[in-house]
Amino acid sequence: MKLFARKHDPAADIEDIRRAGKLPAHIAIIMDGNGRWAEKRGLPRNAGHARGSENFDRIATVCSDMGIRYLTVYAFSTENWKRDKAEVDGIFDLFRKYLKKSCDEMVERNVKLRIFGDTSPFPEDIIALIDRAAELSEQTTGMQVNVCINYGGRDELVHAARSLARDAAEGRLSPDAVDAAMLESRLYSAGVPDPDLLIRTGGDMRVSNFLLWQIAYSEFYVTDTLWPSFTKEELCHAILSFAGRDRRFGGYGKSRSGRK
Ligand code: FPP
After folding, report:
1. CATH of 25-152+194-242, one of 3.30.930.10, 3.40.1180.10, 3.40.50.620, 3.30.420.40
2. Ligand 1 neighbourhood includes 91 CB (under 6 angstroms)
3. Could you count the other beta carbons within 10 Å of the beta carbon of residue 243?
4. What's the pTM?
């Protein structure tokens, strides 16, 4: 697209995109490739997760500065419990560190934080930090970061279906009243618009049980870059690619507009 063709100035491209009203309101990211990043360097996998966590912080700041309204990241899936205990413990230590830092800086950075997923098996100190982050988020007005931990798209849908079934069984809800909006209101993502752009690093062309309901019309951007190496410049490239697409939502494209 000509409008967004400045090759070496991603910041100017983003400004053009914002002016054209084509900035994605919601970006979702599958942050894949931490393990491979570490293995390539002869480091333990947890060193990759540590670099991945730092990069997440960097990219979240870039998104917030750009004016992105929502950022949702896949940090730990319901299937990731299959990994070695040492790796899982290492990832949870990173969550703890991130949550502490977020609570300290959230008001100053003016961001909101929400956790999507089943938090019931988490240690008490992590639950307390999540609750504190939710309280602090009531004071802030900026970008909302949604971190998916112990999250699975299927698990989220089962959880929502169970909550509707419980209300129906207890006479609070007629089964015929169930519609898409009502189901959405029982998802972890209730109140959050669907992602416009889904980025996957690490090169795999799959969805991996991420936001199965919410990505129905998201635009995909898949890159071979491993998550710790994903830069602001590549994020701009992904947004540029998004801004040039013709989103049809099952209707007609621009080529048809004006035709009878
Ligand atoms: C996928 O890479 C990444 C994970 C399963 C963990 C993601 C965790 C982080 C980015 C760090 C913590 C995040 C926060 C929010 C503080 P992989 O291990 O599957 O990589 P591979 O495909 O190369 O093996």
Report:
1. 3.40.1180.10
2. yes
3. 22
4. 0.94
